[in-house]
Amino acid sequence: MGHREELTRFLKAVRGRIDPESVGLPKRDRRREKGLSRDEVALLSGMSVTWYTWFEQGRDVQLSATTLERLSGALRLDPREREFLFTLAQHRPPPLTGERNEEISTGLQQMMDCLNIPALVMAEDWRVIGWNALVTRVFRDYGALPPEQRNLFKILLLTDIYRTDEAEYDALVRRLTARLKWDYSRATQVDLFDQLIEEMKECSPLFRTYWGTPEISAEFEGPNAMPVEGLGKLSFYHTSYAVEHDPGQRLVLFTPSNEATAEKLRGIVAALGKG
In terms of residue numbers, what domain contains 159? Predict the structure, then answer.
C-alpha cells in the first residue's frame, strides 16, 4: 500500500468517527455513511468539494501547510494524527506548533537516571527542563535555580567559570552563537528568542560581535571543560539529539573526552550509588 492509498484510508476513517452535530452541522434523518460527508469536510476546512474529493481519492493534489492545518482542525486530529497527515501528504513533518511543552516524559527521565554520564534536556530556547544527578554533581543544581535562570545559553556565556581561558571562551561563544542563529530560524516561540538575543547583546560584547557575522551552524556538539570542586578540571564532549515525541526538546549527553575525566566520573557514579 502506497502513501496515497493510506491517505485515502486515513481520511475516510477520521471523518467517519465525527458526529456532524458535534461540529455544529444539522442532523440528517438519513445518512448513507457514518460521520461527516466529503461535502461537510470541505465546508469545515474551507476547501472546494472537488478539491477535497480529489485529495481524499489520492490524486496528485498538493495542499499548502495552511490548508492542511485547517483540515486537521476540521477533522479534530490530535498531534500525532496531524503529523501523520502532513507526512503522508507532504512527505515531511508539519511545522512545530507554538505550544510550550515544559514536561519531559517519564521514560526519558528514567533513561537519563540510568546513564553513567551527565545528561539534560533543553527546550527549543535553551531552557533546561530536565537533568540527571550527574549534571547536578558535575555542572550545577538546576533544581536550586529559579526556572527563569535555567537558560543554558546565558549560563555558558555569562558565568565566570567558563571565562578562565580567553581563547576557549571565544571559541565557545562563536560556536554557540552560530547554533543559536540556526535555532532562531526554526523557532516557534520567536518572542522568547528575541528577549534572549537582546539581553545577550547588552551583556556580552563578544556575542554581539558574533551575532553580526553570517556564520551559522546546524550542529550542537563540541568540547567543554570546567573545574569541579574537589575533582579539578573535567573535560567532556557534548552531543545532542532531538526527542522524537517532542520535537522542540533536545537531549544533551556529556561524554568524557579523556581517561582522567572518565576515571573521576566513575568515582562520582560510585559515590552516588549508581555503579
Answer: 106-271
Torsion of CA 114, 116, 117, 123, to 10 degrees: 0
Helical H segments across the chain, by residue range: 3-16, 38-45, 49-56, 65-74, 79-90, 106-114, 133-138, 152-158, 166-185, 190-203, 205-211, 259-271
What would the pLDDT profile of 80-129 be if each residue is shown by its tens digit?
Answer: 888 889 888 887 767 665 555 678 899 999 999 999 999 999 998 999 99
Q: Mapping DSSP to helix (H, G, I), strand (E, B) and coil, where does residue 202 land?
A: helix
| Structural domain contains residue 164 | yes
Query: Residue 85 maps to which CATH number?
Result: 1.10.260.40
pLDDT in tens, 214-239: 999 988 888 888 888 888 889 999 99
Number of domains present in the structure of the chain = 2
Query: Distances from the Cα of 197 to the Cαs of 13, 59, 190, 208, in angstroms?
Result: 46, 45, 10, 9
